[in-house]
Amino acid sequence: MPTENARAFFAMSNLEQGRGVIARYREFLPLSDSTPVVSLGEGNTPLIYAAKLSTRVGRDCQVFVKNEGLNPTGSFKDRGMTVAVSRALERKVRALICASTGNTSASAAAYAARAGVPCAVILPAGKIATGKLLQAFMHDARIIAVEGNFDDALRIVRELAARDDLVIVNSINPDRIAGQKTAAFEIVDLLGDAPDFHLLPVGNAGNIFAYWTGYNQYLARQKSTKLPAMVGFQAAGAAPIFYNRVVENPETIASAIRIGNPASWKQARTAIEESRGAIDIVSDEEILAAQDWLARNEGIFVEPASAASIAGFFKCCGGKKAAYSFEKIPAGSRIVCTVTGHGLKDPDARKIDNIPPVPANIDNVLRAIGF
Ligand code: F0G
Question: How far is the CA of 204 from the centre of ligand 1 (A)?
Answer without folding.
Answer: 6
